[in-house]
Design a protein that fits this description.
The chain has two domains: about 160 residues, 3-Layer(aba) Sandwich (Rossmann fold); about 160 residues, Glycogen Phosphorylase B (Rossmann fold, 3-Layer(aba) Sandwich). Helices cover about 35% and strands about 15% of the residues. The protein is built from 13 helices and 13 strands. The protein has a seven-stranded parallel sheet. A six-stranded parallel sheet has the order 10-9-8-11-12-13, sandwiched between helices. Helix 7 links the parallel strand 8 and strand 9.
Amino acid sequence: MLVQIIGTLRGGGAERVALTLHKAFKRLGKHSKVYVLSEKVDYEVNDEDVVIGADVNDIKGDLIIAHMQDVSEKVDGNNVWHVIHNSYSFKFKKRNFFSRIKHIKEFRQIYNNRNLICVSNGVKKDVLQNLKVKPKEIKTIYNPFDFEEIREKANQKVDLGFDYIINAAALTKVKNQELLIKSYARLDTPLHLVLLGKGNQEGNLKKLVKKLGLEKKVHFLGWQSNPYKYIKNAKLFVLSSNVEGFGNVLVESLALNTPVVSTNCPSGPSEILIGELAKFLAKVNDIDDLRNKIELALNDYPEIKNEYIQKFDYIEIAKEYLELV
């Protein structure tokens, strides 16, 4: 049996990865279960093989995939692979010296001499070079995407009454929508700016919008259970993050044939926007460079070829996981 363990099913990327992998395993005819340790659930789940409020001590499987640090603290074994979804060293840098050392030490204690999966090569590099973890084994396996489902959901109607640029992410400092709003303010465009998501920076971002006199052109639509319909109908998707583990929404946007601009943050965007798309990577926290990349994308974006995203297909990714059994 293939088992995944995750702390919650809140509206995050790791949670979506777990559910998508579960779906792929079943499509491949495998016996798959997802155990959720808490009862915090945002996603709509109608599957008896997704167990909410599970006891970690009762979980057994031929392959156990542990998502996130809080779960990895609780489970271990030769058949357990621990998935690292973020570039943690960049988060630890925000702390004071003693707190940073403490968190790095704890991280090493959890992941040393264990089987690790990193969701991007950038995360793998961070684990090995910045955090100095010494794993038993380590692999990069990208996040899985069910493109058929994404495109089907994207067909729902959107009626906003204007053309727009979009960002979909938690409204937090690390996602840095402040940078996007400031760059947008320097654009000469009739396009509006739509922000999907919720977070502790929402109040500050709305104050910034008011200060810049953009209340009629910048729209906060909150967290959306189906962001795909908004992304599909956007003229451009812009990711403005300081740090990512992978950048799921970049792949989703490309799958919907929506042009993408992203900060070249660690980790993920440079592994997704490759070839002709690499020129749409902007410097992190650089207002003018992001504005320039947005202008370039709006004026001349190349054809979004299937080859850019095919390697992220959920069935192909699931097969990579099955090789671990």
